[in-house]
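Researcher: Here's my situation. A collaborator sent me these components and asked whether they could plausibly form a single complex. I don't have experimental data yet, so a predicted model of the whole assembly would be a useful starting point for our discussion.
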Amino acid sequence: MTTSTATLPITDRTRVGRLADQQIVDRAALYALLDGQILAHVALVVEGNPLIIPLAFARDGDSVLIHGSTGGGLLRLAAAGSGLGLSVTALDGLVYARSLFDSSMNYRSVVIYGVPTVVPPKEKERALLVLSERLMPGRSEEVRPMTRRELAATIVLCIPLTEVSMKTRSGAPSEAVDDGENHAVWAGVVPVVTGWGAPSASPLTAHGTEVPASVRRH
Amino acid sequence: MTTSTATLPITDRTRVGRLADQQIVDRAALYALLDGQILAHVALVVEGNPLIIPLAFARDGDSVLIHGSTGGGLLRLAAAGSGLGLSVTALDGLVYARSLFDSSMNYRSVVIYGVPTVVPPKEKERALLVLSERLMPGRSEEVRPMTRRELAATIVLCIPLTEVSMKTRSGAPSEAVDDGENHAVWAGVVPVVTGWGAPSASPLTAHGTEVPASVRRH
């Protein structure tokens, strides 16, 4: 077990080449990004070819957790001890410069590289509750406990936050030294806003059932 | 040049294994997903290891375009003729079943596999305008044209929409046959809503400059 430090170590793979000033080495910023997102993209190599899949994830201390069916490809990957790359990206805004070339996007992005370990049976329920708490906070208190069969059908993988590359862009557009821009043109940022819509009850829900706390909090 | 058909061909790599009923083979649904998103994650294999990067993208007919600096890793990748996987995912909602196991997410997701080709110099400006039009519709009319230097500094890659795997989940939660659920509990969907916030002008913008049509349309 490595001790985490406030800054992220930079390795050959996580060192940002271009736009190195956009590299973030602050662990608190990393946690804030991960804790605000639920969707990751995972890349792996299968028979020499790239494979990419979108997945829900959750941070658990200094690791991230992903889960899936024991019948899915994740299990085979984990059993093979393959390395993977996991990326989480928040798109924060469109950046309108006064040229297309200098226009950009504001974003926060992290890529985590590592070899996942399978969470052992004894720790699996806790790991799944961490995932549940991140994806649907409070929901585990409202529904029945997981069954033994459900636990057996689910695999949870853990990837340590050791080899991590975080990059962000924020704020106003920047421009190259004046090279023909029309100074009468507006420049600025249009933020992306993500939120939750009104919950819709399913046919499983009896008429008059109260919307629970886990849903009202959205 | 292949002729596109209304349905997407299924290859060994694009055939969905688990939850095969969630596989979509309708080209119109694919286009609708791609045209509504601007962020992709690209996976490649470098020296046997997975690499993953977030990028803006745009559909151009039966291809997708990505672009970057000639100083970045994309150029080396393209020169090597490496295959890549490009994933675009829209998260549409959280699906609250009456067990954690049956809870899920509503989403639309596509993975495109292929070997990118470099868009040749003569077609590069048109390709960049396609990207610009998708990311910031109307903006190219408001700013000065691209310069020769800017074109030379940018590489555009084209990936055909031939090997494509699309998967979606929508609608209410589904549940396994009754296995202990509390029927008094609410079940349903909380939609994810994405939109645009109020534009903020940058210090580059003279006081009183009108917000242009490309920004007002958000």
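Model: Some features of this prediction you could bring to your collaborator: Chain B has a mean pLDDT of 89. Chain B has one domain: 1-94+105-173.
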